[in-house]
Amino acid sequence: MTSGVPHLTTALNGPLLKLEAILLEKQTQVETWLRQQWLKTPAPFYASVDLRNAGFKLAPVDTNLFPAGFNNLNPSFIPLCIHAAQAAVERVCPTAKRVLIVAENHTRNLFYLESLETLRDIFQKAGMEARIGSLLEDIKEPVSIDLPSGKKITLEPLVRNGNRVAVGDFSPCLVLLNNDLSAGRPDILENLEQEVVPPLRAGWSTRKKSDHFTQYNDVAKEFAEQIGIDPWLVSPLTLQCGEVNFKEKSGIECLARNVNNLLTSIRAKYAEYDIDREPFVVVKADSGTYGMGIMTVKSAEEIENLNRKQRNKMSSAKEGLVVDNVLVQEGVYTFETLGDEKAVAEPVIYMMDRYVIGGFYRVHTGRGVNENLNAPGMHFEPLAFAQSCSTPEQNDLPDAEPNRFYAYGVIARLALLAAAREIA
Amino acid sequence: MTSGVPHLTTALNGPLLKLEAILLEKQTQVETWLRQQWLKTPAPFYASVDLRNAGFKLAPVDTNLFPAGFNNLNPSFIPLCIHAAQAAVERVCPTAKRVLIVAENHTRNLFYLESLETLRDIFQKAGMEARIGSLLEDIKEPVSIDLPSGKKITLEPLVRNGNRVAVGDFSPCLVLLNNDLSAGRPDILENLEQEVVPPLRAGWSTRKKSDHFTQYNDVAKEFAEQIGIDPWLVSPLTLQCGEVNFKEKSGIECLARNVNNLLTSIRAKYAEYDIDREPFVVVKADSGTYGMGIMTVKSAEEIENLNRKQRNKMSSAKEGLVVDNVLVQEGVYTFETLGDEKAVAEPVIYMMDRYVIGGFYRVHTGRGVNENLNAPGMHFEPLAFAQSCSTPEQNDLPDAEPNRFYAYGVIARLALLAAAREIA
């Protein structure tokens, strides 16, 4: 069976990553340590993690506990998803026969609907009846939508009956959220007797990126100690500013100061590792997703001199969430590129339970190596990973394809562990 | 990534299997029922199951709790094996970091050694240090052997220290038997404080095929009731004869009588389902493996008129095990063939824990549809399954490739469940 996926050859000719060699050499220790961690803190039901690979460092920049994009995974690895879904369900509700998926609210986004239908189908193939409930008020009866792939998806209105939610007469013991709750925790989902995964508190209405990265930094430190590396090689430096209001220009000074401090720290690290690049930082909303409220800066002056348009953009996170807490994070260069055009390619890794089930590259031709590819309106081409992230080859070079994918899977699982601790 | 595996097109043009349609239609019930069963009786650590697909019925004929042939699986699905190995280890010994594999004794069989090294590598990739211990007396120090695949395998002498076994100073908490103990339970493995899987009692020195098929018939009945089918569609009729000595010609009359009774029962079933084929039965040793002591007969007279050579052959099971109990089993035709030559192809399914991890066809050009392809000295060409057994496609025809593979996986798991109950 062919996957129809080209190998990312140019990307794989990037600078040899020492880290990959160490992860390969210490693979048994890495996996043993991770297994011990999962015994202490069970993995979230599912997640996707955006990574940046700068060659000299490999780090997560975003961990999504309500992943979309399942349609971008390599169809060859759907069996992995199916087995992982069975394991994930077994952990939270061993007797579950059915699952009700609560969808994200952007019904007109066909890419999202393709992902949703792929996710539903994974559960069907795992032997669970799966149906999709929508919170949208304008969905008052089941709606079937034809998808570009030729598949069809059916969305049904989510209704509450006592302490249970249902679509029609379908009210299973397991409710799977695929809605990140950016708009807040909806009443209809509060105090259910059903098992709700991930828990409501994992939604963006309560979750803070800064909490995640605080946990991540601890995880990275512990992990780095295990295998004898500098934790900086796997984690972005991060600072947090409270009470920033871009519209009213309050808190901007604190932000500029933190940007400056962080740039200084990155510069020191670059000097330590002889990296001849200009440091940059990413400023983003502490809550929320979809790349809104994100900006890349190379100096504190850029923050001080923001124009009205830029300030407005930073204020409008998804579904009107007001940006007040702001994360200032080390920007990690993306040095993986594809083809003659040197299209920037960023890996996204998918996990269910503690298993890495696959991933894809976001490939973008029109953007630089230090820009965010998940910005609003940004178009990317997904390029499914040609191989799984579970088959390191000791006899191959550290940066051979299976070993690079393995490294992705390891770092993504560190982010998964951070998320597990975050929502525990 | 291509798997380099041709699709078994001709085989898939066989008679439409009603059973496949039912398994597909009732997939959720099938999986739910299986999940419930694993909660009651945990799956064996690993197993392979030989199936026969007659078009009108699909049944297991042999369940191996110490599987070899891992090298015949599609490399694309090794990630499935790795995840399943992690799950299997987690169930028996969650803190295990290392595994000691106890090998079969035929060191000169390069096919077996390829399988053994593939198995060891699966554990390595799953993040466990894995080494191989041999019981052979002529292995007194570590021996490295170059394999046809270009890999190298290292066998080390298994030694006992107190209540533990080890190779060198490697004495992990988990000991995985890949030796079917046909020659008896070796003293060195008795009363270990280490976790030994599968348990010694699962070895052929104590295990009886008749026990397995007694359990299988119960499983098949319960399963058939769940999905509303005749259990005969998934199980071979089986009778047992005790105290048969082919060399001394004792017990032969009982055997002939049972052969006759079984042929009559099969004939009745063939009449019920309008099957225009000549029934046949397979006579085999109740213990043991490797296809020794197996014979195909179409009448009781064939049993009564066995010549000395045939009787001697039936007496010599693997490693001199004397045949005394004999299983008389309905022969299931193999109507899957490959290519213009109509080479007979028999599926073998591999499982770890409760997960189907893959399979292959034994393809043989020189034998008939009612002969045993796993006979001593028989050469077969392995043809790895092109797809996994976990991705049924509701929108495809019931006998489309993914659905046929799914059916194999279901019936193989019924045999796995029977084995689980057998060794519980």
TrEMBL record, chains A, B:
Pfam families (alphabetical): GshA
Annotated InterPro entries: GshA, GshA_N
Lineage top rank: taxon: Bacteria
Stated name of the protein: Glutamate--cysteine ligase
Phylogenetic lineage: Bacteria, Pseudomonadati, Pseudomonadota, Gammaproteobacteria, Thiotrichales
